[in-house]
Design a protein that fits this description.
The chain is α/β, with parallel strands linked by helices. Among the domains are: about 140 residues, Rossmann fold (3-Layer(aba) Sandwich); about 70 residues. It is built from nine helices and twelve strands. The chain has a four-stranded antiparallel β-sheet with strand order 9-10-11-12. It has a three-stranded antiparallel β-sheet with strand order 2-5-4. It has a three-stranded parallel β-sheet with strand order 6-7-8, sandwiched between helices. A hairpin with a 6-residue loop joins strand 9 and strand 10. Helix 2 crosses helix 6. It is elongated.
Length: about 300
């Protein structure tokens, strides 16, 4: 959802069925029979008995992020959690679903063959030992069944250090933020959101990245964010060349005013070269050669 502007998701969900839906507020208690929706530009984090709504570090370029919600739910409720990944682009949700499974929870993935955008369910199915791959019409009955029967095992699987650390990073824990650079080994590229050092590590077989202050990425999401930053950088270069051409034309005019033909000619040549570089940039964008397509 966009960071600015209202979200009407609670209104839509409340009209669609008997359960009321609300946007969460910081510290809101968790009650049965209630749907909780993330507030725009805020992560929805689960703690035992209540919900945090905070502007933590973005994950995969987004806030709210599904991975942060699933990870903290897994920490708080272990085998009582059911994680569901539906249609969507890139690979969001896989890291969170891995956390749900590591804590003994239940993992459901929409059938990628049915999904409008199969990338998210396909990636989750590839890296997570999911319990069910279902068509959309079959997911709600499965959730009803799971909600009305005891969990298969009440024994919670112990929290591993990485899961605890990442959950605390999402919650902006001071000690956790200071330890964000201990998650893996330095990667040979920087964080596209802040320019900090990226650490790369494996979440089971799933390659992931976190920067020194906590921004998190899965592989395809990192490529997408790099593409966004490349676009910004290239247009900044175009703007710099445009400003250079404008300045050089101004200096040529000033030299002409002073009857300095030699300097006027020199600055005019430089300005023409800058204009040529601008046109090369423009033509490259028109042909689609400057920026690659998203994966």
């Amino acid at each position: 959802m966009p960071a600015e502007g209202p979200s009407y998701l609670p209104d839509i969900l409340s009209r669609a069925g008997p359960l009321p839906a609300v946007h969460v507020t910081e510290g809101m208690p968790i009650e049965p029979g209630q749907i909780y929706c993330a507030t725009p530009d805020h992560h929805l984090l689960i703690e035992p008995g209540h919900i945090h709504s905070i502007r933590g570090m973005k994950e995969n370029g987004f806030r709210p992020a599904i991975d942060a919600t699933l990870r903290t739910a897994a920490r708080a409720y272990g085998p009582r959690v059911v994680g569901v990944i539906l249609t969507g682009m890139l690979d969001d949700g896989t890291a969170g679903l891995l956390a749900v499974k590591r804590r003994g929870g239940y993992a459901i993935v929409q059938d990628p063959d049915e999904a409008l955008y199969p990338s998210m369910p396909h990636t989750a199915r590839r890296y997570v030992s999911v319990d069910a791959v279902l068509r959309l019409a079959d997911i709600a009955p499965m959730l009803m069944q799971l909600a009305h029967e005891p969990v298969a095992s009440t024994k919670e699987i112990a929290m591993d250090d990485h899961l605890e650390l990442e959950a605390n990073i999402s919650a902006l824990g001071q000690e956790a933020l200071e330890q964000a650079d201990t998650l893996g080994v330095p990667a040979p590229f920087s964080c596209p959101d802040c320019g900090g050092v990226l650490m790369e590590f494996y979440d089971q077989d799933f390659l992931r990245f976190r920067c020194q202050i906590g921004h998190a990425y899965s592989p395809e999401s990192l490529v997408a964010r790099q593409t966004d930053q490349l676009d910004i950088t290239l247009w900044a270069a175009y703007r710099a060349i445009d400003e250079r051409a404008t300045l050089l034309r101004r200096l040529a005019a000033e030299a002409q005013r002073l009857n300095d033909e030699r300097e006027a000619h020199r600055f005019t040549q430089f300005a023409q070269r800058a204009e040529y570089q601008k046109e090369q940039f423009r033509q490259a964008y028109l042909k689609g050669d400057v920026n690659e397509e998203r994966p």
